[in-house]
Amino acid sequence: MHVRYQDLREWLIQIEEIGGLKEVKGANVEEDAGMLAEMLSHTEDAPAVIMDTIPGYPKWHRLLINANGARQRIAHTLGFDHRIDRIPLLEALAQRLQSLKLLPPVVVENGPVMENVLKGEDVDLNRFPAPLWHLEDGGRYIGTGCYLITRDPEEGWINLGTYRVMVQKKDQVGFYVSPGHHGWIHREKYFAKGKPCPVAIVLGGDPLLMMTGSLEVPWGISEYDWAGGLRGGPYRVIHDPITGLPIPAEAELVLVGYTHPGEVAPEGPFGEWTGYYASGSREEPFIKVDAVYHRNDPILLGTPPNRPPYEADKYRQYIKSAMLLNDLRRSGVPGVKAVWCHGVGGCRLLIAVAIEQMYTGHAAQAGHLACQLPSGAYLGRLIIVTDDDIDVSDLEELMWGVITRCDPATDLDIVHRAWSGPLDPLVSPDMRAKGEFYNSRLIINATRPWSWRHQFPKAIGPDMEYRRKTREKWGHLLK
């Protein structure tokens, strides 16, 4: 096993040991939870915070915020030394993903998640802390650091996807999935046949599995298998007797039920990852909760979107960058040295690629592929291609490369009618009404001009290797 924890509780003990966890008692979910999440998200290396003794809820029903909002905890979650630096973490993760072998989960009869089973009239979601995360949200969202489990009704594979979940009634939740996402496709397949779609919602548990649910794992591959390979050991799952879906045996809290075709309720608005209330409020399908399973003293995971970069951006920038780096290399493009999906763009709106130029049009090829390969295609905006002497993870250095090497008259290219979604604030009201969720992509060539690259002025300053040696020798002065 690459990771040293079996569940969220072991992870919390280990994070506390490295000084990354603090406890807050008496904070409320009406205002304090949202204030804490926003503050922690926008503070460098802020700790994870567990809210306990929440007013109006049982004493040991807890809420964890900013779990993976710092590099040290991200590295630990992924199974690396928590002291590893940014670029070495990216490179180590990309290498592990390149040789990743899928590990399907193992089925067990029972597990901690079944310590408490609530059905029928006993189902009451108001027992669990569901915050009002943003002042103008349309309701309380119990599901932010969560993932929904669905099964493809035709192909049979299991998807885990992070989609927002709103409390509507004591036994009913609304959920929003952007068109084109795997959970949306699964649901629409059931609805097209006139059948209800079974859903399980995991609201707390293994932090790596939750991370994985927020990624673009390829179609047909279960996140259980993918995350099992990444952690170096299979997950344990229980077949839920109501939906038949596999739920994590070590999860903290799981809701199970069905969403039915034609049955909708108002959902939203909700402040989303772009930093806007872009999707508004509308009628969306809901899930009738038939059962609730939870451990004794459950810990819910809260990862509410805020103006980027927020918590999810801080961990996704490593995983999405590593995935896109491997995708580009597998596509056959030579000389791809680094990729960084910047958190300030929600790890989607700003992507940077560093290449060692080898031929005419090399930069354009890398840029077009970076914005259309599966790991980079959804709701992008700017793609910047630089030479490999630029640290693309450093926003200041990246922009220095753009303003000194990009000629606006010749080095900009636009891709039209690319895949976007309702969360894109630039999708016009007319397009929304028509269901036309397209946008454009700007590809910026910030490489030295190919035809006279050897005559381009030499940059001052050390190369990447020299900087690495400097950090090794003198980095202690910065701590």
Structural notes for this entry:
By secondary structure, the protein is an alpha+beta fold. It folds into two domains: 8-302, Roll (Pnp Oxidase, Chain A), CATH 2.30.110.10; 331-478, UbiD C-terminal domain-like, CATH 3.40.1670.10. It has twelve helices and 22 strands. The protein has helices at 8-17, 32-41, 71-78, 86-98, 182-192, 207-213, 223-231, 311-330, 362-370, 395-405, 429-434, 464-474, and strands at 21-25, 48-52, 62-65, 106-107, 116-119, 141-143, 147-151, 158-161, 164-169, 172-176, 197-204, 236-239, 246-248, 253-259, 264-267, 282-294, 299-302, 336-341, 350-355, 382-387, 412-419, 438-446. The strands form four sheets. Strands 5, 6, 7, 8, 9, 10, 11, 14, 15 and 16 form a ten-stranded antiparallel sheet that branches. It starts with 7 loop residues before the first helix and ends in a 5-residue tail after the last helix. The mean pLDDT is 95.
Task: Give the secondary structure arrangement, pairings included.
Elements: H1 8-17, E1 21-25, H2 32-41, E2 48-52, E3 62-65, H3 71-78, H4 86-98, E4 106-107, E5 116-119, E6 141-143, E7 147-151, E8 158-161, E9 164-169, E10 172-176, H5 182-192, E11 197-204, H6 207-213, H7 223-231, E12 236-239, E13 246-248, E14 253-259, E15 264-267, E16 282-294, E17 299-302, H8 311-330, E18 336-341, E19 350-355, H9 362-370, E20 382-387, H10 395-405, E21 412-419, H11 429-434, E22 438-446, H12 464-474
Parallel strand pairs: 1-2, 3-17, 4-12, 19-20, 20-22
Antiparallel strand pairs: 2-3, 5-16, 6-9, 7-8, 7-11, 9-10, 10-16, 11-14, 12-13, 14-16, 15-16, 18-19, 21-22
